[in-house]
């Protein structure tokens, strides 16, 4: 077991990739605070974890608001007294052509995906610095943070920002033994991608862009996150790991 007694905070843990990471980390011995929106889903994730014999708490909180962010960190500290690993996974995506993106669309993506990542990162990093034992921070970016997909300018910009935020944090936090890396998944089967998966023509067309000819599963991302959280990646920081079935390396 690779995360025995580590305290982990995962945002956006009510479903999808966040839930898979929370459950996988717990199976490796971590105590997990599952934070985000959707009380029922958060409690369900926490219940999966306690069924595994590990410890979990569910915290309803919106990453856009500093008061909520402070509360999720304070609740975690009250329960276990420390935070060793942070996974900033909460995120949203609603497509729109560039010429039709409203100011509200723009703010919604940037506030949740980028500002939320900043707020949670800064508060948790301050605690890690105080604790003095280093830590690992994992930012959920996307292949859209490295390459532009049509109809997603706001999402692409938010994920590109996350990659540079991760690198900037990695540089400044390295002296404290805190590593900061980002994950760049390709197409993963979750509620977020369900509309495309449920459309047989669209998904057949989309699969042509993926050399491995399948979509990814949340567990594929959880495995990469586990590597980033554990000491096995102890000399890796500021890195963006792509997990996309080969999509980004293919020209045509
Ligand atoms: N599914 C994919 O193909 C894919 C690919 C690349 C990156 N990602 C990223 O992975 C992350 C998880 O995506 P997913 O596919 O599991 O999506 P999902 O919609 O299933 O889960 C998103 C999670 O974020 C939470 N969330 C949304 N807004 C929030 C807020 N304001 N505050 C707190 N929590 C909030 C939701 O409640 C949910 O738990 C996102 O950051 C997404 O951009 C997903």
TrEMBL record:
Keywords, comma-separated and alphabetical: Oxidoreductase
Pfam families: adh_short_C2
PROSITE patterns, A to Z: ADH_SHORT (PS00061)
Gene Ontology terms, MF aspect: oxidoreductase activity, acting on the CH-OH group of donors, NAD or NADP as acceptor
Record domain Ketoreductase: where: 6-190
InterPro entries: KR_dom, NAD(P)-bd_dom_sf, Sc_DH/Rdtase_CS, SDR_fam
BP GO terms, sorted: bile acid metabolic process
Annotated PANTHER family: SHORT-CHAIN DEHYDROGENASES/REDUCTASES FAMILY MEMBER
NCBIfam families: PRK07231.1 (NF005559), PRK12826.1-2 (NF009466)
Family: Belongs to the short-chain dehydrogenases/reductases (SDR) family.
Designated name of the protein: Beta-ketoacyl-ACP reductase
Organism of origin: Paenibacillus baekrokdamisoli
